Model the fold of this input.
Amino acid sequence: MKNTTPSFARGDRSAANYPMKEQSSERHRQPHRSVVSIIAKFLFPLACCVATAAPAQTANPKPWPTKPVRIVVPFAAGSFTDTAARTLGKELTEALGQPVIVENRTGAGGILGNEIVAKAPADGHTLLVTDNSFAVAAALYKKLPYSPLGDIAPISQIAEAPAVLVARTNLAAKDLRSIIATARLDPAAMTFGSGGQGSSGHLAFEELLLQPERA
Done:
């Protein structure tokens, strides 16, 4: 499973609807199997949507941006998502002629940052750069303080990264097959850490454990 980083804007009036002024070059709790299948089905169309959806055009589009643009990152500074957002922000600042400011608003697995963007004015000046957790939250939680499909509109996928498994050097299991076998034989003897429940790293390892054993 790869960690994809799409960008979003508040409501259906995303930044993609506006013409630019100028262009330039842990410890874990195993999710139920049905939840994993729901997440797998939801992640793929979301990735396609943010990569291919064409923005709706208005008859008389307003110039954009007319003021500094804010990019909200619902994860800590230095994370993969944060680094991607800051790279994007620097390029957009040069291209748009307006400051693009990155804000880290962490908490609740990304939900707090998502909520900030969902409740911001729908003028295209508040963007969200997040990862797969945006889709995962809709499957893990019965109620969210925003509508993932109604309050926040996708713009584009901007980056992706592989999930990497590492372990302490004195671990008896020396390869992936041995690690999975040990985890299945005695789940209490082995734990793994990730970015949090529902993160791409968490789901990637749970997916491995759910796969049938190979000869």
User: Anything to note?
Assistant: The chain has one domain: 2-162. Confidence is low (pLDDT under 50) at residues 16-56. The radius of gyration is 19 Å.
